[in-house]
What we know:
The protein is α/β, with parallel strands linked by helices.
Amino acid sequence: MEAAELRVALFSGNYNYVRDGANQALNRLVEYLLRQKAAVRIYSPTVEKPAFPPNGDLISIPSVPVPGRSEYHAPILIPPSVKRDIKAFRPNIFHVASPEMLGHRAVTLARKMDLPVIASVHTRFETYPRYYGLAFLEPLVEAGLRRFYRRCDAIFAPSESMAQLLREQRMNYDVGIWTRGIDRDVFNPGRRDLAWRRSLGIDDDMPAIGFVGRLVMEKGLDVFSDTIEHLERRQVRHKVLVVGEGPARTWFEQRLPQATFVGFQKGPDLGRAVASMDMLFNPSVTETFGNVTLEAMAAGLPVVAAIATGSESLVTDGVTGRLIRPGAIDAFADALAHYCTDKEARLAAGRAGAGVSSHYGWDEVNQALVDAYLRIVRQRAGGGRQRPSPVP
């Protein structure tokens, strides 16, 4: 079997209506599949004004806004008309990208159609409750995720550290890697723009500490702002540059009144913003890979990050940046102060990170997933079935 014989039904809770790392990876995957002459059909909620045009044929799934996070939409069912569309498409593999209602319904449908189904893991949903005062719910969320992922033939993590965590959590027998790539035309040290920095009031010799991502609490905004306050008390010379939008922007601006907020950036503008920083600070523990970490490394920046899934697969402590225990404010401040005051250490770590990033190409990582699709389809055609888990 070859890639051109694949017929992939892809189910996502957010394919293009809000821009984030997960749905951009899915769109890149679809673009690659189409170049390999595979057939792909995407099923996802849609909105009137999406964040970007979708790659491939996108079929709308009924949805409702998520309470408290209305920018996201929760799919509510797969209507009969869509089920007919799926059957007419004649997929030979299902790919589910999120463990919500649409994902559960898609897995059930795949089993009824006797088709293999794989799941890609894009975020650590079990960690989200702690950011909203509901940490006691984490074991229940993890149990729900385990039930979902065990119904799949295989699951794919974006980093080896995340894959190992999924194995330890007993999520599935077959845990593979679908990592992420980097667009080196966009993210490279040559994008650094001192004139742009000056327009923001950042002097050429001022160390700029960057944050890149959605401005939501689960990105570790509280740890970030507490750490910056420690630097200010130590009178470490620096400037904070925040790239991104989100519902917590007002809160973040109030916590960091001296920071420069440039809002959402994309494409070459994002590449310029990242390269014009001097280091990236990523305290989040919710990522399974850390796209922004890889982008910063490609731009020649040292990265100070939490020891967490994703980051610890990318950052080599003491070489390309620093890995710090999650929530350790003093240690984060020490690491940032080191790079703020030692330009040579900053440049050396940036060069090392740029070298590591050169191994991540989108076509290579997407081909690895295509190879896994083919393996799983062949296994099912040969009579293979998902093995039941030996652990309850």
